[in-house]
Amino acid sequence: MHKDNNAVRDEIIRRSGVNPRKCMRCGKCSATCPAYDEMEFHPHQFVYMVESGDIEPLMNSKSLYQCLTCFACVDRCPRGVEPAKLVEAVRLEVIRKQGANHLKADDIPALVTEELPQQAIVSAFRKYTK
Amino acid sequence: MQRIGVFVCWCGSNIAGTVDVEAVSEALKSEPGVVFSTNYQYMCSQAGQDIIKNAIAEHKLTGIVVCSCSPRMHEATFRKTAAAAGLNPYMVEIANIREQCSWIHKDMATGTEKAIILGKAAVAKVNLNAPLTPGESPVTKRALVIGGGIAGIQTALDIADAGFPVDIVETKPTIGGKMAQLDKTFPTLDCAACILTPKMVDVAQHENIRIFSYSEVVEVGGFVGNFDVKIKKKARYVKEDVCTGCGICTEKCPMKKAPNEFNMGMDNRPAVYIPFAQAVPKVATIDPNYCNMLKNGKCGLCAKVCTAGAIDYTQKDEIIEEKYGAIVAATGFNPISMDKFDEYAYNQSKDVITSLEFERLTNAAGPTAGKLLRPSDGEHPHTIVFVQCVGSRCAACAEKGKEYCSKICCMYTAKHAMLTRDKYPDTDVYVFYIDVRTPGKSFDEFYRRAVEEYGVHYIKGMVGKVSPEGNKLMVQASDLLANKQLHIEADLVVLAAAIEPDKSARPLATMLTASMDTNDFFTEAHPKLRPVESPTAGVFLSGTCQGPKDIPETVSQASAAAAKVIGLLAKDKLTGNPCVAHSDELMCNGCSSCERVCPYGAITYVDKEFRMPDRTTAIRRVASVNTAVCQGCGACTVACPSGAMDLNGFKNAQIMAEVDAICK
Ligand SMILES: Cc1cc2nc3c(=O)[nH]c(=O)nc-3n(C[C@H](O)[C@H](O)[C@H](O)COP(=O)(O)OP(=O)(O)OC[C@H]3O[C@@H](n4cnc5c(N)ncnc54)[C@H](O)[C@@H]3O)c2cc1C
Ligand code: SF4
Ligand code: SF4
Ligand code: SF4
Ligand code: SF4
Description:
The structure holds two protein chains of two kinds.
Chain A: H1 3-16, H2 28-32, H3 43-51, H4 56-59, H5 63-66, H6 72-76, H7 83-97, H8 108-111, H9 118-126
Helix pairs in contact in A: 1-7, 3-7
Chain B: E1 4-9, H1 13-16, H2 21-28, E2 34-40, H3 46-58, E3 63-68, H4 71-84, E4 92-96, H5 98-102, H6 108-126, E5 136-138, E6 143-146, H7 150-161, E7 166-169, E8 184-185, E9 190-191, H8 192-205, E10 209-212, E11 215-223, E12 226-233, H9 248-252, E13 258-259, E14 268-269, E15 272-273, E16 285-286, H10 292-296, H11 301-305, E17 318-324, E18 326-329, E19 333-335, E20 352-354, H12 355-362, E21 383-390, H13 409-423, E22 428-433, H14 443-452, E23 457-460, E24 463-469, E25 472-479, E26 484-490, E27 492-497, E28 499-501, H15 505-512, E29 539-541, H16 551-569, E30 573-575, E31 581-583, H17 593-597, E32 603-611, E33 617-625, H18 635-639, E34 645-647, H19 652-663
Parallel strand pairs in B: 1-2, 1-3, 3-4, 6-7, 6-18, 7-10, 18-29, 20-27, 21-22, 21-27, 22-23
Antiparallel strand pairs in B: 5-30, 8-9, 11-12, 12-17, 13-14, 15-16, 19-28, 24-25, 25-26, 31-34, 32-33
Helix pairs in contact in B: 2-6, 3-4, 6-19, 7-8, 7-16, 13-14
The complex binds flavin-adenine dinucleotide (FAD) and iron/sulfur cluster (SF4) (4 copies).
């Protein structure tokens, strides 16, 4: 396993607060997941791949955005692993690597419409500064 | 002044490799009281013990110090040696220079220095030792077995066969436990009733066994060899000695709506009932929650039809007091509640059942007379999904499941799957597993037979959810090896529910002062070497109350517990431990601090008359220790604010002398 991978893995584990070693590979998360069929990597694979530092393929996979964050896997996992939090942590890793692509204050007036939720604007601001 | 002999052991190279034994025996020669000091290769050997015996005689020793291994290892050996040479065995002290010294140090200088210090401390203690004589107590030659499952039955039969009287206390109206509810039993598939009921009959007919069924232990006092126990015989409204078990009352009773617990509530029974045909004792019991006569005085039919005149609506609970020398806990297990497993729709669909319910559905004496039919519509199920580890190996939430493996479910699920395919070859059977755990004689072969000969589909993965749709159950699961999510349309889903100790075990353990683990299984005195004894003297463990077990293991442990009980009851007298607490009555102010900390309830208070100055007297309340109950833990000596409590053999002064010797 590459040393850099270890660094990324440790950061993801720290950020998510998840301990992938608790996973007993029962697959109940994947059995529960409503987005399973759309995913290339399924929740239990996510946990295993993060544990083994195999994070590149996860970052490049559409599966990251197919997770609905419904937390069904978190609720059902018998070992309290919380796979959805790992998905979120890897998603953040991708976003942070994209560079400072967050919204600039000057761009805002042009974007504001009645329908746009305020929270979306705040999130767009925060995207990289988090 | 004592005349002390010091004996330093090499333990081969175990001690001598890191401790300069010569230097130790030399250094200890000049300690106060020491008149003789030597070292030898193996002190515990016959030759070593002879050195000790000869020195005691030759140097007129009044106390000895052996610098050797842990006292847990050989204190008893050296005490016997001393006694054989006419020295009080409690004049022996061990300085542990092996486990606490040579094994943990690497260089000779440090090891030797520490060994000398430990030796000095032991010498300082022996200088203050006094001869002690253990008390003796008689043994009541009768055993109590709490719980009448296969564990309690086997233990009771073995003790009774050895010639000692045994009482079984069972909360249910009959003995038999869970095994009586099973259909066939792995790994040999003999019918549970065929092998259990003859044993139940043996119990009933044994001249040394009394059964208190429908009864509970309500109070336990006393100590090993001399327990005082109160047993509550609950009113069953039927005279046990008059009822012939003909069952006419159960036929005629008009109130037939009570859930039948023997069939896991899958059908109903009358208010007056005999749990099953082979019940022991075969006596009817009236359920006061359902009987019309007991609830509102309007019926009394059973009394009219009973030709034996056994019905007695005025019966009251009865308390029986009995003395026992030994007590065996055999309170067994229960499957956990499935209420927290909404994902498996147990409470939404009648066709999602537990494995114990499945046993009743396939049992010829069960609600369907042994035909496997769906509880909802009585149809034959064509697709059955078994889910293993439901609530077992679950560390996420203590409210929901158990962290441990329940041990029996892999095997009984293989059994259920195999028997289903055998009887109904047109049925598709799926088993979802995380791991298949089959250690045990002929166990893995059994599981492989289910797969290879009977074509059971074993799929590695868990079921995520079960949703009732029409008269089907939609099962969503993962197949980890194929990396697929499966959707199976099932007719019946069977959950292998985790097992847990009976809820009554915790209050019982409190009465027995026996310890339990965090899961409420009784703890054994040593996990490997004393697996059937509780740390509390005189209390023994049998069956699943100690941990998950199948029948072969339960029976082995039950017989092992019986052997321990027989060993105890065969003794006429028990030698106590003289290292017990006592209070200095002149210092005690009767504050009750010690009583509150004593885990064994050994301390009481007495009002005593004391001489005061000028020929007056005063009555004061002082602590008094029951030396037969005291285990010498020393908690009271620490709690006592006036320093009145002291422990024989471990007096405060002795401990302080040791500390002083170490710090000198
Ligand atoms: C679905 C299922 C299938 C199984 N199939 C098999 C199989 O095929 N082969 C096999 O080897 N094993 C099998 N087992 C395991 C088997 O049932 C147990 O190993 C066995 O029943 C344990 O016996 P026990 O006496 O320890 O406990 P239990 O059978 O639970 O008996 C305990 C008894 O104590 C009584 N009791 C409880 N508390 C008190 C109290 N406070 N005072 C007085 N009495 C009390 C209870 O009423 C009960 O009668 C199966 C288990 C299940 C759940
Ligand atoms: S449910 Fe939990 S323990 Fe099971 S595979 Fe998923 S993350 Fe691992
Ligand atoms: S949170 Fe994501 S991974 Fe977990 S079950 Fe929902 S969709 Fe699947
Ligand atoms: S008196 Fe009670 S138990 Fe007897 S027949 Fe009537 S309802 Fe049944
Ligand atoms: S015995 Fe098998 S089914 Fe039962 S908890 Fe253990 S692994 Fe799971």
